[in-house]
Design goal:
mainly beta; 61% strand; 2 helices
Length: 216
Amino acid sequence: MTIVRIAYILFTVLPSLTAAAKADDLLIWSPAKLSERSYKATMGFRLPAEWETSAGADIALAATKGGAPLPDSEQAMLWGRIVRTNVTPAGQSQRGVKVSVDTLRGSGALTLSRSRSWILSDSLDMQSSRSVSVGYDPIDARQASVTASQALKLIHPWTGTALSAGAGLSNARGDFSSSVAVSQTILPNLNLDASMTNPFSEDEAGSVNLRYRLNW
């Protein structure tokens, strides 16, 4: 059975399970229509425990007006995740392992991550995160790669101001990257973001964004 037929079955038959998925938190079912002729769905299951385990698949497909699949638009990604979260009155920490396999292109990745958030003072919170990812891509000249990243964020919860800095190192490209950013909450659903990547280097680039979020 081709990926087109699989996607067709998923998007025509499985939507009837949406109500059950909402009622049962152990089932993951999240279909989405990305555009007029493109669709994506995440499906799977989760097992609540000290180490929460979840696994599933991401299926996506886009088609032309005539109904023919667009080239390279199909997606069939298998994924699995194990996460442990510790919560204390002073903060929260999380450790996790994630694996993903692109069944159509033969690529995959294994990621180890760790994050922590805690109260730094009466007016400041701190967040830190780090990850190491081992990837494989049969098409890339350097098929195996290792990427490491780390980030810190300082938050002033009373004003909605956040300062962050991050750095990453990849042996696939053999380069080092860094970034700094500031975020300011203007209204409950309105945020102003400014960021700069690779400051003080030839590849320096920056951006300023005003984001408005509307929930209904």
